[in-house]
Design goal:
Two copies of one chain form a homodimer.
Chain A: E1 8-10, E2 13-15, H1 17-28, E3 35-39, H2 46-58, E4 62-67, E5 73-75, E6 79-81, E7 85-86, E8 96-99, H3 104-107, H4 110-122, E9 125-129, H5 132-138, E10 146-147, E11 163-164, E12 171-173, E13 176-179, H6 184-197, H7 199-208, H8 222-225, H9 227-260
Helix pairs in contact in A: 2-6, 5-9, 6-7
């Protein structure tokens, strides 16, 4: 038996009959499918959007991977991903717009800033995970809002107009949900699902994916890791963080210029 | 500025100069790059392999997405992924071989079983997350070994030769690490990284990704969710689980036939 005996063509690539049946069963009971747009780009961080893709997939949503063009991009690293929707094709009635860490080149790209400024204002909810908060910031979406990110980025948030909040919890300000990296994407997405469809469904999805983490070393924040390990970690990412800080300031200045024009 | 002003071509698609610099910096200090093979296929579950891809990426590894052919497949759902390595190209000296949930059609595919039986015995460590444990099982890798999976699959594990262990913790038997779904992939990967490179680096990676989860509803296991919610969840996945159970038994019988021939 070759896989072509069981694989079926989808608009996204090859899938299987069992997975297609699973998708159909999950959607049969839906009043209206949730529309979830996930931003991807060259060098995007799969970890930061995976919680959203998983949680909303299990909840029966339609998932769109949005980029300028339908052209293969590399998730950091080695995760070749094909966008399924362009900026121009993005519907105005997204239920959720999601971004995780994207490279500094991208958060100051005027075309991307313009996309987020438009789509982010029209979407019912917006999720920014890790450096993704800077992406929302340079598009003006955090102006005057409470927001969080990873511990290195939190102090940069005021430079994109936000009120910075530290401490690893998801920060909710009206329809904008921001979180730290890694599983912040799961936490924020489950809370957005609660806002959209109620706690009963959201809690059921948390069970369906058996989201019951067991971090082995309990070093997942500067507070948990202590000053010595935190200093080592910060020294490793310092050059990257300087790039992000400069790009965020330039991007935010560009956005402000855009809205004046 | 268009993204083509900053995007660079990689063998995996487009990336950016900042991400390429980040990869180079992470690898500069490595004694020898870890080689991590991640199994993908039509209908594979991105959530179950994301922890491995993230943890080993941050640790500076080379990441290979392995499938029969370099042909776009759909991750469940809407995550179009391009495999970067075929079964034939897979090196014999993998440090880690990883699989998450793959459809029942795949866990009983003789060509896939043959690949896992060979590559799984040669790799230093093997990680199976969620239904991925059944994939390892039908390839004979769990024979006489303690193993776990999601709560629905745990009772099926003896039918692929394993000693079943419940309870959400990562189960380690020699070089085989199995876990439940979702963040089980992070937990198992951090523990394998500890085995390969020591606890100091593994704990530093846990900090670098700020893996400090905040499950919002505390319903991530049958024990946490209680009998009523668990019954609802199980009734929704019962048809799928029957398919998995039958496919696993057929696949394991095929494996046993293979090694007799």
């Amino acid at each position: 038996m070759s896989d072509h005996d069981y694989a079926v063509e989808t608009i996204y690539g090859l899938s299987t009959p069992s997975i297609q049946a699973l998708i159909a069963a999950g959607r049969a009971s839906q009043p209206a499918l949730l529309k979830v747009g996930i931003f991807v780009c060259p060098g995007y961080m799969p970890m930061d959007i995976n919680g959203a893709q998983s949680v909303f997939t299990i909840a029966g949503a339609e998932i769109y991977f949005i980029w300028k063009r339908r052209e293969l991009v590399e998730g950091y690293i080695g995760w070749p991903t094909m966008p399924t929707m362009t900026f121009d094709e993005c519907p105005d009635d997204l239920d959720v717009l999601v971004t995780g860490m994207v490279p500094p080149e991208v958060i100051e790209d005027p075309e991307v800033i313009r996309f987020f400024a438009r789509a982010g204002q029209k979407a019912k909810y917006v999720i920014g995970t890790c450096y993704g908060s800077l992406m929302l910031g340079t598009a003006g979406l955090l102006k005057g809002r409470r927001a969080t990110s990873n511990s290195n980025v939190v102090p940069m948030l005021p430079d994109v107009g936000a009120v910075a909040v530290g401490g690893s919890d998801v920060v909710i300000d009206d329809t904008i949900y921001t979180s730290g990296p890694a599983t912040g994407s799961f936490d924020a997405s489950l809370l957005v699902l609660k806002a959209l469809r109620g706690e009963e469904l959201a809690a059921l999805v948390e069970l369906a994916i058996e989201y019951d983490p067991r971090p082995p070393f309990r070093t997942g924040s500067p507070q948990l890791a202590g000053p010595e390990m935190t200093a080592i970690s910060q020294s490793m990412t310092a050059p990257l963080n300087r790039q992000y800080h400069e790009a965020a300031k330039r991007g935010y200045a560009r956005y402000q210029q855009m809205i004046q024009d």
